[in-house]
Amino acid sequence: MTLAEALWFPVSLFLGMLFFFAPALHAPQPHHVKVAVAESAPARRVDSALGTRVPGGFDVTAVPDGRAARQSVLDRDTVAGFREDRGHAVLYVAKANGASLEQTLTQVFTQVAAESHRHLTVTDVAPTERKDELGTTLLYFSLAWSIPAYVLATTLLRAVTFSRRRKLRTIAGVAAGYSVIGFYAGVWLGYLPDKPLAMGVSFLLTTAVATAASGLAPFVRQFFPAVAKGLFIVMSIPTSGGAVPAPMLPMFFQHVREAMPLANGLDALRGVLYFDGAGVLKPVLVLCAWFAGGVALLGLDLRLHRRRAGAPAVRAGEVDDGDGQGELVGEPPVEDPALETPRPAALPVHAHHFGEQVPVLTGRVQDREGRPVRGAAVTVIDARGRQLVRSVTDETGEYAATGLPEGYLSIVVSAPGRHPMVHQTLLQTGMTARADFALHSMAQGRHAKPAQAIAPSV
Question: Which contacts of 391-396 are long-range, i.e. CB under 8 A and separated by 24 or more positions?
Answer without folding.
Answer: 391/346, 393/364, 393/365, 394/348, 394/349, 396/349, 396/364, 396/372
